């Protein structure tokens, strides 16, 4: 087989609306009617809910205030540099009302990282938070952006978003919102989203208004939203349900699914500014959260953290894992923690403007280890190392044609040509597609190890190691070896009980290392054994979307191996 087809996309998709007009002003056959008592967003700490009319008013007020005070207009770029905030979506939609472009920045960025984004994007304004204000002002000064063009969501020494909203609501309209021409949503830029490459500087992905709109509709059709396909209590997305907004909104997963898909489906989103695991458990119980959108490191905590047993999580009905592969063994553990939940994975990337595959509503549990099935409107092919096309159950690089594809990389023609090839998006991920169209992500191609000529996927070994009772988190990296080429080395974070045992008897550390090595040897073929050894660390470094920062530990492993080689 040369190509794999997801179901055809039957639903209508508007191509003459901005994202704000689609989500705030429009109806759609797949969009359910939200109960009048169900807010769109809920503040985690205070519990204040914000409904549709208030959001539309605040969005208009901010758009008018930005136009009055800063003359933000068509194609001006606004950088949002903040943790999640209840007015974060309002800031996005207000910018879009003005015809502007939004670029969301990781609030953990340092001054130089933010400066790079400001320069590449040619920012006109920064919307930040008091917790990130010092960095924002430093980067703005270095970029030549006046300090008065840095505003904050909360009260600070700068102009606040709320004061701009009030000014905008009090004043006469200072802008006219434009209706797009037919087809213009496919070319008009809505976002510049900076992708996290493992090498070099991040690339600015240009995303049209049409892309998140069509992806929301693709997911809605795939998940049978607003279709009476099962008894009410078994339907996956029901208006009035409550979702956890713990994913960072600056990331494509949080932006498209956490904000837009959840609100499209009629769910209330609890806006969680910063992820703290025990506080997150309290939020689930306090707000009766039914839907969790998470990444594997958070799921590891759900399975391993001792505090979980103190909370009743039986109200969780749905959990979607994305951003990185989730092992089948971890899913098995998760089922015991969330016995009433439908659990599965999704798969996508910034360049596909979110979801490519997602687990089906036809099953309570996604197929173990699978990222789900291709969503409606997606065509895929799997390309082997020799350039030929793979069939079912044959590994190779996933390439896709998606209606939500990004426009390319801003001012980077070479990278655009390498990733967007003749209508196909090269994902850089090695996958296997089965006869039932389940997609299994083996690993990032550039992270695959070669041991004695055999391919070894770190994610596979990590899933195995996490089954060990003394391990709470892990990352596997390659170390060079003159005979085998590369050998797997595991960095492991120990469970608190194991740490206590080592404190009482330091010799226990070597016994635990030996036990982990034996556990892998008992479950994996010889070339996948941890011949590079095991090292204990306090934390596994990750980026904000939950992806392991392997390069950090790869460098540490290299430093550890050098002294050994001198012996």
TrEMBL record:
Domain AMP-dependent synthetase/ligase, residue spans: 46-410
AMP-binding enzyme C-terminal domain location: 460-547
Top-level lineage group: Eukaryota
A single MF term (Gene Ontology): CoA-ligase activity
InterPro entries for the chain: AMP-bd_C, AMP-bd_C_sf, AMP-binding_CS, AMP-dep_synth/lig_dom, ANL_N_sf
Membrane-crossing residue ranges in chain numbering: none
SUPFAM superfamilies per the UniProt record, alphabetical: Acetyl-CoA synthetase-like
Matches recorded under Gene3D superfamilies: 3.30.300.30, N-terminal domain of ligase-like
Coiled-coil region: none
Family annotation (PANTHER family): BCDNA.GH02901, LONG-CHAIN-FATTY-ACID--COA LIGASE
Protein name (Swiss-Prot/TrEMBL): 4-coumarate--CoA ligase
């Amino acid at each position: 087989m040369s190509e794999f087809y997801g179901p055809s996309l039957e639903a209508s998709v508007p191509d003459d609306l901005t994202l704000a007009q689609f989500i705030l002003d429009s109806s759609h056959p797949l969009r359910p009617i939200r109960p009048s008592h169900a807010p769109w967003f809920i503040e985690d700490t205070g519990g204040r809910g914000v409904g549709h009319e208030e959001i539309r008013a605040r969005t208009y007020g901010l758009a008018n205030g930005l136009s009055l005070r800063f003359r933000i207009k068509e194609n001006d770029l606004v950088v949002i540099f903040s943790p999640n905030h209840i007015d974060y979506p309002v800031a996005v939609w207000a910018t879009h009302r003005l015809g502007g472009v939004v670029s969301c920045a990781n609030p953990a960025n340092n001054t130089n990282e933010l400066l790079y984004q400001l320069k590449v994007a040619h920012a006109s304004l920064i919307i930040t938070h008091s917790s990130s204000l010092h960095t924002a002002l430093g980067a703005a000064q270095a970029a030549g952006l006046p300090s008065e063009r840095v505003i904050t969501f909360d009260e600070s020494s700068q102009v606040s978003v709320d004061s701009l909203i009030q000014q905008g609501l009090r004043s006469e309209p200072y802008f006219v919102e434009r209706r797009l021409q037919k087809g213009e949503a496919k070319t008009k830029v809505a976002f510049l989203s900076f992708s996290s490459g493992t090498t070099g500087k991040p690339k600015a992905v240009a995303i049209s208004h049409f892309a998140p709109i069509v992806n929301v509709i693709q997911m809605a059709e795939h998940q049978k939203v607003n279709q009476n396909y099962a008894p009410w209590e078994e339907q996956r997305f029901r208006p009035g349900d409550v979702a956890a907004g713990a994913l960072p909104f600056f990331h494509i997963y949080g932006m498209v699914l956490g904000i837009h898909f959840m609100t499209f489906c009629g769910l209330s989103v609890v806006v969680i500014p910063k992820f703290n695991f025990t506080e997150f458990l309290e939020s689930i119980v306090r707000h009766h959260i039914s839907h969790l959108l998470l990444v594997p490191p958070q799921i590891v905590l759900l399975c391993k953290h001792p505090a979980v047993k103190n909370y009743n999580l039986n109200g969780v009905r749905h959990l979607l894992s994305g951003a990185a592969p989730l092992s089948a063994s971890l899913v098995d553990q998760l089922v015991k923690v969330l016995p009433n939940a439908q659990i599965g994975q999704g798969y996508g990337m910034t360049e596909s403007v979110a979801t490519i595959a997602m687990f089906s509503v036809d099953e309570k549990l996604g197929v173990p280890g699978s990222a789900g099935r291709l969503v409606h409107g997606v065509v895929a092919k799997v390309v082997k190392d020799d350039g030929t096309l793979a069939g079912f159950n044959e590994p190779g690089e996933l390439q896709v044609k998606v209606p939500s594809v990004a426009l390319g990389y801003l001012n980077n023609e070479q990278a655009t040509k390498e990733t967007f090839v003749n209508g196909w998006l090269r994902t850089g991920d090695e996958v296997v597609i089965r006869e039932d169209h389940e997609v299994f992500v083996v690993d990032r191609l550039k992270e695959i190890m070669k041991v004695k000529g055999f391919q070894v996927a770190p994610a596979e070994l990590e899933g195995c190691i996490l089954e060990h009772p003394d391990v709470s988190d892990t990352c596997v990296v390659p170390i060079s070896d003159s005979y085998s080429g590369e050998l797997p080395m595991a960095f492991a974070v120990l469970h608190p009980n194991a740490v206590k045992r080592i404190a009482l008897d330091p010799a226990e550390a070597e016994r635990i290392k030996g036990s982990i090595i034996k556990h892998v040897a008992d479950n994996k073929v010889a070339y996948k054994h941890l011949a590079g050894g095991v090292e204990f660390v306090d934390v596994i470094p990750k980026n904000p979307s939950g992806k392991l920062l392997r390069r950090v530990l790869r460098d540490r492993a290299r430093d550890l191996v050098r002294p050994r080689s001198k012996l």
